[in-house]
Design goal:
Blueprint lengths: L1 H4 L2 H14 L5 E5 L5 E3 L2 E2 L6 H7 L7 E5 L2 E6 L4 H7 L4 H8 L4 E3 H15 L1 E4 L6 E2 L4 E2 L3 H12 L4 E4 L1 H9 L3 H23 L8 H14 L3 E2 L4 E4 L18 E8 L1 E3 L2 E2 L2 E8 L3 H19 L7 H19 L8 H5 L29 E4 L2 E4 L4 E4 L2 E5 L4 E3 L11
Parallel strand pairs: 5-6, 7-10
Antiparallel strand pairs: 1-4, 2-3, 4-5, 8-9, 11-14, 12-13, 13-16, 14-15, 17-20, 18-19, 20-21
Length: 411
């Protein structure tokens, strides 16, 4: 699908725009991700660094993009005979075709050329790296960017290194037509799979993992993979926001929360539905109805000129009224009380990453793609409800990309 959606001009124009935004940086160097070990000699499925892909369209690991003024080339890694036998050789012609970069060089030649440019410029721009261990989220960062930074700094003593992450973030926030089409295709695959699952009857499944398997099959049969680990959470599991074990029996008297999204040409969808499994109580149904109303209200906030902070404040007030009416809190203006039941944000950006880069203080503009996902979670009653759509901001408001995905109250 990538070749059908993204022509070399897409990546050429992204590089041109980057040069225009970084006029003071003659030398720009960006690395691909590396392959990560899973166990012993096996690896996790490779996923390209999103900014590197945005500039090149290349899905090979360990390549390096060098933009030296008007000159561009790709440094291609040297592969061992073992890698060539088991993984295949790198098709440099394909790299050139997809990226629109006519020159590829081997690692030894490329680094010699790059070091010469570094000594001449004494300055280079690149994407800085996250901490090796992101303690707030509990994961290890891909080491490729850190490795490149060390090598650049070791090449020339005292070289100045500038960070281009913010520039790329601002560029990536506004989606181009090909990107919007890729996201729409990912959303359509997600929608068709959710609808197929729902119409087959949630009551016909007995365990969370059966629903996960149906999602995987539905995405795969439509030519896509998961954009992120799916969440299939029945009963109290839905109160853990990123529950991914998906191994418990489906509760017969509650809801099952399903949060999943397909990926097309590296672009993600993000959709959540909370479906009745069996016969939820009247109180649980009232909670679901409150979230459904909040979701409709959240959509009404999505228009150019508003900020996500403004939307968040308004949604918190709206859910405060809902929670007071339902008897969960005494004061609808007590934000801390509301946050005990509404523990995440209303929106995040979507694109090459399911939680895409974005400036949360920048007013909404046409071309931005975000989620709308209010939720309420009551652990003591073993129920969590979230309803999430992926939307694109337009000049007049928004377009709900996943509006055809069954919500569960259509009957």
């Amino acid at each position: 699908m990538q070749s059908e959606l993204f022509e070399p001009d897409f990546f050429l124009n992204n590089r041109r725009r980057l040069r225009e935004e970084r006029r003071d940086d003659k030398l720009i160097v960006v690395t691909a991700n590396g392959v990560l070990q899973r166990s012993n000699d096996t690896t996790y499925p490779f996923r390209q660094d999103s900014s590197f892909w945005y500039l090149t369209g290349i899905n090979e690991p360990d390549c390096i993009l060098v933009m030296d003024g008007a000159d561009e080339y790709i440094i291609v890694p040297e592969l061992s005979s073992f890698q060539v036998i088991f993984d295949g050789a790198i098709d440099v012609t394909a790299l050139q075709k997809s990226s629109g970069i006519n020159e590829t060089v081997d690692a030894k030649t490329g680094w010699a050329r790059l070091r010469s440019a570094l000594r001449s410029e004494l300055s280079v721009a690149t994407c800085f790296a996250s901490a090796g261990y992101v303690s707030g989220s509990g994961y290890y960062a891909n080491p490729a960017r850190q490795r490149l930074l060390r090598r650049l700094r070791a090449s020339v003593r005292g070289i100045r290194v500038n960070d281009i992450r913010n520039t790329l973030m601002q560029m990536r926030m506004i989606k181009q037509p090909a990107e919007l089409e890729a996201i729409q295709q990912a959303v359509d695959i997600t929608t068709k799979t959710f609808n197929q699952l729902y119409q087959s009857g949630i009551d016909t499944y007995t365990h969370e993992y059966e629903l996960e398997a149906a999602l995987t099959s539905g995405f795969g049969s439509r030519g896509a993979a998961h954009a992120y680990a799916p969440i299939v959470a029945s009963g109290e599991q839905a109160c853990t926001l990123h529950y991914v074990a998906n191994n418990q029996p489906l509760a017969a008297d509650s809801y099952v929360l399903i949060d999943a999204g397909a990926e097309v040409a590296n672009y993600a969808a993000d959709v959540t539905r909370t479906y009745a499994g069996g016969a939820p109580s009247s109180k649980q149904r009232s909670l679901w109805a409150a979230v459904r109303e909040a979701h409709a209200y959240g959509l009404s906030l999505m228009r150019p000129g508003r900020t996500l902070q403004e939307n968040e404040v308004d949604m918190t007030h709206f859910l405060g009224k809902q929670l007071r009416q339902l008897g969960y809190i005494n004061s609808e203006t007590d934000t801390s009380a509301v946050r005990q039941y509404y523990s995440h944000g209303l929106s995040h950006f979507v694109g090459l990453d399911v939680h895409d880069v974005g400036d949360y203080e920048r007013p909404l503009e046409p071309g931005m793609v975000l989620t709308v996902e209010p939720g309420l979670y009551v652990a003591k009653e073993q129920v969590g409800v979230r309803i999430e759509d992926t939307v694109a901001i337009t000049k007049d408001g928004f377009r709900n990309l996943s509006k055809d995905c069954i919500y569960g109250d259509e009957k």
